[in-house]
Write a structure and sequence with these properties.
60% of the residues lie in helices and 0% in strands. The chain is mainly alpha-helical. It has one domain. The model has no long low-confidence stretch (mean pLDDT 93).
Length: 78
């Protein structure tokens, strides 16, 4: 029986300027181009998902939100 694949190849076409930038950043972090790109992609994906599922607000905004939840319900005009 064939085992399910746990890793999948990914191919990109990048201009030289983008590749140079990625290589420079990978070198600064002391990792390979592949590892840098994987880390950056995972970080961007995680951030995108969190932005859709996590509400961030100031202390004042949260206090106003909490006050509106705690307030007596009001009947909306017809």
């Amino acid at each position: 029986m064939q085992q399910a694949r746990t890793e999948h190849p990914l191919s990109l076409r990048l201009p030289d300027v983008d590749l140079s930038l990625i290589d420079r950043a990978a070198n600064i972090q002391g990792c390979s181009r592949t590892q840098f790109m994987r880390n950056a992609a995972i970080q961007a994906a995680t951030q995108t998902i969190l932005e859709q599922s996590l509400v961030v607000m100031s202390h004042e905004g949260f206090a106003a939100f909490q006050a509106s939840i705690d307030a007596e319900p009001q009947i909306a005009p017809a």
